[in-house]
Design goal:
The complex is a heterodimer. By secondary structure, chain A is mostly beta strands. Helices cover 0% and strands 52% of the residues of chain A. Chain A has strands spanning 3-5, 10-14, 19-21, 24-26, 33-39, 46-52, 60-61, 64-69, 74-79, 88-95, 101-103, 107-112. Chain B is globular. In chain B, 0% of the residues lie in helices and 53% in strands. In chain B, β4 and β5 form a beta hairpin. Classes of the chains: A mainly beta, B mainly beta.
């Protein structure tokens, strides 16, 4: 069975600074996808970034980038130039070929002005 | 176009009652997923539909939970004889082929 672990329940960052959220996973599958989702207090889950396991290049979306270490089964999210609107719960997630998502426990990110 | 919608947005019910939660996916999306988000269990997968069939029901916590999807569109999650531990936010998501999943705003269920 696949598992996803986020070891940081809460993180804090100063506005305009950089923060990294950690995620590790376990799977025996060779083809899979990894995701970071953002969930603000509105409850709406928003996809931040997606990484295909077969791609060696780390995904990047504007201020968001990942460090994907396949052998170590690690998938961290880096947020650069943090903004107040980045404050939310962040979930790391795994999916195999059916698309069903296995989520980590979440990390609450606080952004200080 | 319209996103995934869920109704009701909030539902309060008495223990032992049955509830139905509805999900309207994005038009044309072939796959539909139900998840549950609770304080104790985090975000859990419940069931997955491909078209009208459910190849993976492995996340349904008990036989009190069932779901159906009709016309390859709307899905209903039914919880019979609700218990307090069923209190949670129920999220629905849909996707087209291998694209990303789009989530609805969720239904907050409170069992008193």
């Amino acid at each position: 069975a696949q598992t996803v672990t986020q070891s940081q329940p809460e993180m804090s960052v100063q506005e305009a600074e950089t923060v990294t959220l950690s995620c590790t996973y376990d799977t025996s599958e060779s083809d899979y996808y990894l995701f970071w989702y953002k969930q603000p207090p509105s409850r709406q889950m928003i996809l931040v970034i997606r990484q295909e396991a077969y791609k060696q290049q780390n995904a990047t979306e504007n201020r968001f980038s990942v460090n994907f270490q396949k052998a170590a089964k690690s998938f961290s999210l880096k947020i650069s130039d943090s903004q107040l609107g980045d404050a939310a719960m962040y979930f790391c997630a795994f999916s195999g070929n059916t698309g069903k998502l296995i989520f980590g426990q979440g990390t609450t990110l606080q952004v200080k002005p | 176009g319209a996103g995934v919608s869920q109704s009701p947005s909030n539902k309060v019910t008495e223990k032992g009652k049955d509830v139905e939660l509805r999900c309207d996916p994005i038009s044309g999306h072939t796959a539909l997923y139900w998840y549950r988000q609770s304080l104790g269990q985090g975000l859990e997968f419940l069931i997955y539909f491909q078209g009208n069939s459910a190849p993976d029901k492995s996340g349904l916590p008990s036989d009190r939970f069932s779901a159906e999807r009709t016309g390859g569109s709307v899905s209903t999650l039914t919880i019979q004889r609700t218990q307090q531990e069923d209190s949670a936010v129920y999220l629905c998501a849909s996707r087209f082929l291998w694209g990303e999943q789009y989530f609805g705003p969720g239904t907050r269920l409170t069992v008193t």
